[in-house]
Specification:
By secondary structure, this protein is of the alpha+beta class. The chain has 3 helices and 3 strands. Strands 1-3-2 form a 3-stranded antiparallel beta sheet. β2 and β3 form a beta hairpin.
Length: 57
């Protein structure tokens, strides 16, 4: 079984480094994982409900 963060990274990889909160919800992952990963610097918030890997600007 993959962890929630691994699933998020897989979605990011499949979407050229971007992910939306809707995609996370559809993957049955609580949205707070996006905030947690953003606080840790693993991803950053682009706009409302949109996140990206560092370097994707």
């Amino acid at each position: 079984m993959t962890s929630n963060s691994e699933t998020i990274y897989q979605i990011l990889k499949n979407n050229k480094g971007f992910i939306t909160a809707t995609q996370v919800t559809e993957a049955a992952i609580p949205r707070h994982y996006l905030s947690k990963m953003a606080e840790e610097g693993a991803i950053y918030k682009v706009g409302r409900g949109i996140y990206a890997l560092p370097g994707n600007r």
